[in-house]
Specification:
Helices cover about 50% and strands about 5% of the residues. The protein has helices spanning about 15-25, 25-35, 55-70, 75-85, 105-120, 125-140, 140-160, 165-185, 210-220, 235-245, 260-265, 305-310, and strands spanning about 10, 15, 195-200, 225-230, 245-250, 280-285. The strands form two sheets. It has a four-stranded parallel β-sheet with strand order 4-3-5-6, sandwiched between helices. It has a two-stranded antiparallel ribbon with strand order 1-2. Strand 1 (about 10) and strand 2 (about 15) form a beta hairpin. The longest helix is centred in the middle third of the chain and has 22 residues, at about 140-160. The termini are far apart.
Amino acid sequence: MDELPVGTEPGTGITTGGLARRIGVSPTTLRTWDRRYGLGPADRSQGHHRRWTAQDVAVVEEMCRLTAAGLAPAEAAQLARKHLEGAPPVVVPVPRAEPDPPLTAAALEREHRGISRAATRLDSPAVQTLLTEAVARHGLVAAWQEVMVPVLHAVGRKWEEAGDRYVEVEHLLSWHVSRTLHRATPAEPVASLPPVVLACVPAEQHCLPLEALGAGLAELGVPQRMFGAAVPVEAVAAAVRRTGPRVVVLWAQARSTASLPLARHLADTRWGVRGARVRPAVMLGGPGWAGRTAGGTLRPATLPDALARIRRLYPELTART
């Protein structure tokens, strides 16, 4: 026998609470949609214990899909009701103007809401589609700065305010952001050039910003070696000695993880033959380094700033851009 969704009983449909958990919206939101737009359960014969049929659920899911695509709730509700009447599913086109229109606060806010709603519903296909469309619409760097980072911060605040609830939402969103960054189409790196080493400092687990930088470097064709989260001191030092990078990027999200001795040690690391020994430029990324300095290190303020500074250290790439 097929399992029923959470909150259902055989032959009765799903409860409001069960439906809210299933699609990732609050019961209050469902009641508001019912009151304002008439998107409520058809079976109202059991007093306050109303049940949502499969057809009712399909309409609400259509409402969620349309609002995630950026439509206003009133317009989405009107189209969702047509879905109830058996009309074909509404296809919401993504604008593809050339050249792309300038980013506006209102347009960005619609994108943020759409991605946040899809993530809250744990709707992986919708999250991936919306993130991919953001990159196609704005470009990788702008999509990271203007779309991904604000949504990640908003979901993180919601998690903190809810007392450890919605952890699954943050994890799902982070995974899809990482997947989107990795799927960005890179240029072919110049293999003969020394790479950029990307590593989080020891005990630092937040590596999404490094992945964004890595994706940006891939677009430029800069070779790189990504070592990810929480790299031990000895491992970072060994990687630098073995790869001979032109730049080492150390990411620290929290002040408790930032290590100036490590930064100074890497900045002083040299290799090569006597008389022609070289050392890397060390770039300190992330808020953990705020207010801290290490002689000779670079401190970019944003992803575009970091890419521009690294780009200047690779004059060989001039002919490619």
